[in-house]
Design goal:
Length: 329
């Protein structure tokens, strides 16, 4: 998976299916962790893999906090941490925790890359975990990681399902990154949390559906195009086709729920990434009534000079208009 998709796909969701995890997938996760960077190459990370049938499994499940009871369904639990004495120390900085965190991230992403749901947890009791797994004092367990395939949210209890339905929130870039001094916000190209997302409603036609009564997958690409044309017209003031000087380089769709003819469909779209001569749209096709997301999609557009047949840098005015719109202007 491309890295930006991997970042977007990773979620700490809680509904696990009972489908077993192939041992080779777990091994690849550990292998990715093994190749992580570490201070002084001390590789102080350690992992204990506890499968469904392991004799230690019951005790590890017991050590989980009540709020993490959902993790008992995960076929594999991995205890991740680092050896306190194995890590490098620079001045007074102890790097074993950085080693543990860095390798944990590689472990997680390699799992997500293989289609797995990987959820790290801090909610467990250390003493029973230590006793169950025979962890030495010098080893600091940092996370119990649930590994498995995503299951059905409706099989979760109400409170846990609500947690998974909460909107994802992140601090804006300028709040977590500074330049060139502490608390001087780093200026990103686009606002990291757009104040305004472009929305437009679609008119479905009978001819869009296939023999199953679903909107045909190929039509979805046309829906995205409708969204783009309206975006260019309404946000950027394009009046003619020639005003839209880009070519489409990439389309990807994740079909989540079939769209039926009677469904109401709204396109919600924003520019999610800008490079020198290309930019990326992120789309959601959703029901404006109940918020169900039918399709998530992305497209990459390359600004293009049709006369010379070559990519050209993105026009500064276009970028300014997009920035202005996303900032709520
Ligand atoms: C070190 C660590 C400990 C966490 N502990 C728990 C936990 O005990 N229970 C839980 O449900 N989620 C836990 N999480 C998941 C976070 O709640 C989650 O990463 C955060 O809300 C952001 O959501 P996202 O991972 O889906 O982007 C933990 C995450 C990390 C990195």
């Amino acid at each position: 998976m491309e890295f930006h998709r991997l970042v977007a796909a990773r979620r700490s969701l809680r509904a696990y299916s009972s489908r077993p995890v192939e041992p080779e997938k777990v091994e690849r996760m550990l292998e990715a962790a093994r190749w992580s960077p570490s201070c002084g190459n001390r590789q102080s990370w350690r992992f204990v893999v506890v499968g469904r049938d392991a004799p230690t499994r019951g005790a590890v499940e017991e050590a989980l906090d009540a709020g993490n009871a959902w993790a008992r369904r995960a076929p594999v639990l991995i205890v991740a941490g680092a050896g306190r004495r194995d890590g490098a120390v620079v001045e007074s900085r102890e790097y074993y925790l950085v080693d543990a965190g860095t390798s944990l991230m590689s472990l997680i992403y390699r799992g997500v890359d293989q289609g797995l749901l990987v959820h790290p947890m801090a909610g467990w009791k250390e003493a029973p975990l230590r006793a169950a797994l025979g962890l030495p004092d010098a080893f600091a367990p940092m996370a119990v990681v649930a590994v498995g395939y995503a299951g059905k949210p409706e099989e979760l209890d109400e409170a846990t399902r609500r947690k998974d339905e909460r909107p994802r929130v992140r601090k804006p870039l300028g709040e977590i990154a500074y330049s060139p001094m502490w608390e001087e916000p780093y200026a990103g190209t686009l606002p990291s949390s757009p104040a305004k997302v472009f929305e437009t409603d679609l008119q479905l036609r009978f001819g869009d559906t296939d023999a199953m009564g679903h909107v045909n997958n190929a039509k979805i690409v046309t829906y995205l195009e409708t969204g783009r044309v309206r975006f260019f017209s309404e946000v950027l003031g394009a009046r003619r086709v020639e005003d839209i000087r880009f070519i489409l380089a990439e389309v990807s769709c994740r079909y989540r729920i079939p769209i039926l003819l009677h469904d109401r469909v709204r396109v919600r779209m924003r520019i999610s990434d800008v490079s020198r001569s290309s930019f990326r749209f992120h789309y959601e096709l959703a029901d404006p009534g109940d918020g169900r997301v039918f399709v998530e999609a992305e497209t990459v557009q390359v600004m293009y000079d049709y006369a010379t047949g070559r990519p050209v840098p993105i026009d500064a005015r276009v970028l300014a208009a997009v920035r202005d719109y996303a900032s709520g202007g």
